[in-house]
Design goal:
Rossmann fold, globular, Helicase, Ruva Protein, domain 3, 19 helices, single chain, alpha/beta, 3 domains, 16 strands, five-stranded parallel β-sheet
Length: 447
């Protein structure tokens, strides 16, 4: 479909000339002879670009441009005039014109300006769309429970300050989503949000990721690399799984939190940045401090504003609403017509223990949307592990040994699901040796 261009000029000869040039180049063109006519045509034609004469009776080009912007119309405007002066060009640009084209102009120059303006508008729309998609993708699935109300209230207060925030909670409770929400609620929301996963990286890689490195700092460092702290200047940095960082990196991180400066790996020049730090962990940092695995002074630097996210099993009143939130999201993404969840399937969701928390619930709903036929998520669309666990009843309704066995199975299944079947990663998340996990998988009959 060709781009639509509205040309506005009070001289018919100029309109004819512009229309001929633009239609010859494949554009769809509409014309207007004055400002009032242009505003009416804009509403009906909805152009991708406006070529607007500066000097016209009644309403000049700047007046028309101001009126368009006051109505919320953001199509790029190129101002055209035979009376081109620097002052008028500056005024037009201040009012929001994309470019200024003096008469007489060469056809190739016109084509170049029009092409660049349309390309810029295309990029603006793509960025806007991606921003909307990202906002929806990372929107917090809260629910209506008193526990989550308290979490959100504390997070909004934390967003209004420069204080470091420590997010605590089991894996899958939504710590990264809450960190993004804190960033978006803060005055830093227009600046970068950078997440750094501290688990699974060697000390050298994590240092380089955080602080960057100079060229030649180590084997393979062929060029200078800026660290994520530097890239996030003015914004927010999430240190995810901060309880897993090594003692050496803990020392460097402590220095940064104390003095807000660091040096790139292999560098000697201090770098200063302004970032808000949010740390997150599912580890028991109090216990790690007592056992000497985590620096006490670093813990106190991180634990300025602690916020604990409750596991899903502690806020069962939120399960239905959170499930419906993910249903809407995944139905939109897959373009499938799902309208809700059957009563039977809802009962099974409410009865399950959710060891993998919100992340596990999201995975269950996404699977049901992808594999289900609709129009509602039914029991047949739920995974066998969920149905089997529910049929056994909740742990409170079982004997001691049966309850322990059921909960062990749920924990292992959730860890494997979160690690996407990677047994080494699942073992690390559970705090087990890989061989022990292999024995558990076999003894519990997990496929």
């Amino acid at each position: 479909m060709p781009n639509k261009i509205l040309i506005v000029d009070d001289e018919p000869f100029n309109l004819d000339l512009l229309e001929q040039e633009l239609t010859d180049r494949g554009y769809s063109v509409e014309r207007a002879g004055d400002g009032a006519q242009a505003l009416g045509k804009f509403e009906s034609f909805r152009p991708d670009l406006v070529l607007l004469d500066y000097q016209m009776p009644d309403m000049n080009g700047v007046d028309v441009l101001r009126e368009l912007r006051s109505r919320g119309n953001e199509a790029p405007v190129v101002m055209i005039t035979a009376y081109g002066t620097i002052e008028r060009a500056v005024q037009a640009m201040k009012e929001g014109a994309y470019d200024f084209l003096p008469k007489p102009f060469e056809p190739d120059h016109l084509a170049l300006v029009v092409g660049k303006a349309l390309e810029r508008e295309k990029l603006r729309r793509e960025v806007e769309l991606l921003s909307e998609e990202a906002s929806e993708r990372y929107r917090l699935a809260v629910g209506k429970s008193a526990k989550m109300d308290a979490v959100v209230e504390a997070a909004k207060k934390a967003a209004a300050s420069k204080a470091t925030v420590l997010l605590l909670g089991e894996s899958g409770t939504g710590k990264e989503l809450l960190a993004r929400a804190i960033h978006n609620w803060s005055e830093r929301k227009e600046k970068p949000f950078v997440a750094i996963n501290c688990v699974g990286l060697s000390r050298e890689l994590l240092e380089s990721d955080l602080f960057g490195h100079e060229r030649g700092a180590f084997t393979g460092a062929h060029q200078l690399k800026k660290g994520k702290l530097e890239l996030a200047d003015g914004g927010t940095v999430l240190l995810d799984e901060v309880g897993d960082i090594s003692a050496e990196v803990q020392t460097k991180l402590l220095r940064f939190l104390q003095e807000r400066e660091f040096e790139r790996v292999g560098g000697t020049r201090p770098m200063r940045v302004d970032v808000k730090i949010i740390a997150a962990t599912n580890r028991d940092l109090d216990g790690a401090v007592r056992e000497g695995r985590f620096r006490e002074d670093l813990y106190y630097r991180l634990n300025v504003v602690p916020i604990r996210l409750p596991p899903l099993r502690e806020r069962r009143e939120d399960i239905q609403e959170v499930a419906e939130f993910f249903l809407r999201r995944f139905a939109d993404e897959t373009k499938k017509s799902f309208t809700g969840i059957t009563a039977e399937a809802r009962e099974k969701l409410l009865a399950y223990q959710w060891p993998g928390n919100v992340r596990e619930l999201a995975n269950v709903i996404e699977r049901a949307i992808v594999l289900g036929q609709g129009p509602e998520i039914a029991v047949r669309d739920l995974p066998d592990t969920l149905i089997a666990a529910e049929q056994k009843g909740s742990p409170q309704g079982l004997g001691y040994h049966e309850a322990i066995e059921a909960h062990r199975r749920e924990l292992v299944v959730a860890a494997l699901a979160e690690a996407q079947g990677n047994r080494a990663a699942a073992a690390k998340a559970l705090g087990l040796h890989r061989t022990h996990l292999m024995k558990l998988i076999k003894s519990l009959g997990i496929e």
